[in-house]
Amino acid sequence: MNDALLQTDLGNLPLLARGKVRDIYALGDDQLLFIATDRISAFDHVLATGIPDKGRILTQLSLFWFDFLKHDVPNHLVTANVADYPAPLQPYAAQLEGRSMIVRRAEMFPVECVARGYISGSGWKDYLATSAICGIPLPGGLTESHRLPQPIFTPAAKINTGGHDENISYSQVESAIGAKHADALRLLTLEIYDRASKHAASKGLILADTKFEFGLIDGEITLADEVLTPDSSRYWPAATYSPGGAQPSFDKQFVRDYLESIHWNKQAPAPALPEDVVLRTREKYLEAFRLITGRTSLTE
Questions:
Q1: Residue closest to 162 by CA, chosen among 3, 38, 44
Q2: CA distance 236 to 248
């Protein structure tokens, strides 16, 4: 039986957004409640089947990284301890435990701050087409998953009607948020990527790329949303790294492979997943959690 949590219901609490994974509720004027469900998406569609514990894994990983990076950048976390939540939330403690956090509202920058140390995904497609990523020229002869000479800042933004993240140039970031903030976000993104990459390497992982979201709280640039999870980052096992093609990763790989194998047309409604794909995907997320945090249980 799949006991994944696909949708939350908190009574009269105002629901602000229901994304591909997170349900976001308003808590007064200056705080939000983030809940990571067990929904999983692929090819821009939320699938009919969830991955049990995925939301808890994502939340616990974000909490780990918020703490790990707290001396590098402030974050929006208020608390993830359900016992400290306001009284109106206590009847829903079972839904909230381990997969939720109360955060401060931020004035979010309309930019996905992406750092890449390796060439993969949309970056690989850009390179094949233009020998550059986000307008940054790269050496010739690179292969898929090749390590870049140095990490690069390759921003993205939701700029089309489908809501997809589209790679944009640095000059577009400057136009959108101003040169001062653009420079600060670029430096901060690369600094955090460097710190996180070194930690990942110490655990036998390659952090190929990742994306951050930042906002302003009281005028200060603040790290927000989720951080360095398998949903926002590409982790590869270092022991089997072999450039020249796609690498095994700690994310939705089994889901994507299954959907390709059944020749789904990538149109709604999205299909359900067989139990073996669900279990293997759950184990991949758990493996990433164990390696990165050093913890064996989500409730430690």
A1: 44
A2: 6
Beta bridge partners of 77: 103
Angle at 46 between CA 42 and CA 50, to 5 degrees: 95
Give the tens place of pLDDT for each residue, 187-210: 999 999 999 999 999 999 999 999
Contact (Cβ atoms closer than 8 angstroms) between residue 169 and residue 157? no
Torsion from C-alpha of 215, 249, 42, 286, nearest 10 degrees: -80
Give the predicted TM-score (pTM) of the model. Answer: 0.94
Please write down the long-range contacts of 67-70, taking CB distance under 8 Å and 24 or more positions apart: 68/195, 68/196, 68/199, 69/192, 69/195, 69/196, 69/223, 69/227
In CATH, which superfamily holds the domain spanning 108-240?
A: ATP-grasp fold, B domain (3.30.470.20)
Domain boundaries, the chain: 15-105, 108-240
Does the domain at 15-105 match CATH 3.40.50.300? Answer given as: no
Query: For 293, how many CA atoms within 13 A lie in the half-sphere containing its CB?
Result: 25
Q: Which of 41, 37, 210 has its CA nearest to residue 112?
A: 210
Concatenated DSSP letters of 126-177? HHHHHSEETTEE--TT--TTPEEEEEEE--EEE-STT--EEE--HHHHHHHH
- Which amino acid is residue 65, in one-letter code? W
Structure token digits, residue 46: 């939320």
